[in-house]
Amino acid sequence: QVQLVESGGGLVQPGGSLRLSCAASGFTFSSYAMSWYRQAPGKERELVARISSAGLITKYGDSMKGRFTISRDNAKNTVYLQMNSLKPEDTAVYYCNAASGWDNYWGQGTQVTVSS
Fold first, then answer.
1. Are 30 and 50 within 8 A, CB to CB?
2. pLDDT per position as a tens digit, 25-38
3. Which residue, of 23, 33, 44, 72, has the greatest Cβ tally within 10 A?
4. Distance between CA 4 and CA 109 in Å, rounded?
5. Residues 90, 15, 68, 95, CA torsion sign
């Protein structure tokens, strides 16, 4: 049974930081590219960051570059998202995604709220 379990969301003030984690199980984690997406109320889901299966290649959404860092630990089957200099417009539900070929798995999401 495939599971992606996100954690680390919460309420943070503008300029603050959060670290999201996504623990994976039920598939060969090291063979999958991992991504973080987010969806704000009334908006489409958008790519936040993606990391290749071996962790050598990363890609970020334009508004996240320089503020967010994606990383993975294949020994722990976990992918992380370090978010710094958070802005109110970063408020959204953040989803973990695993993709390989036709396989595409999603977590349940974790809420991030940036507000003073």
1. no
2. 999 999 999 999 99
3. 72
4. 9
5. negative
Give the closest residue to 36 by CA, choosing from 15, 11, 60, 12. Answer: 60
* Burial of 8: CB neighbours in 10 Å, binned 0-12, 13-18, 19+: middle
- In angstroms, the first-to-last Cα distance of the chain is 40
Can you tell me the distance from the alpha carbon of 68 to that of 48, in angstroms, rounded to the nearest whole number? 8
Given a cut of 90, whether residue 19 has pLDDT beyond it is yes
The token pair that represents 104 in the structure block: 């595409």
Distance CA 114, CA 84 (A): 11
| Beta carbons within 10 angstroms of residue 90's beta carbon | 22
Summarised one tens digit per residue, pLDDT across range 37-58 is 999 999 999 999 999 999 999 9
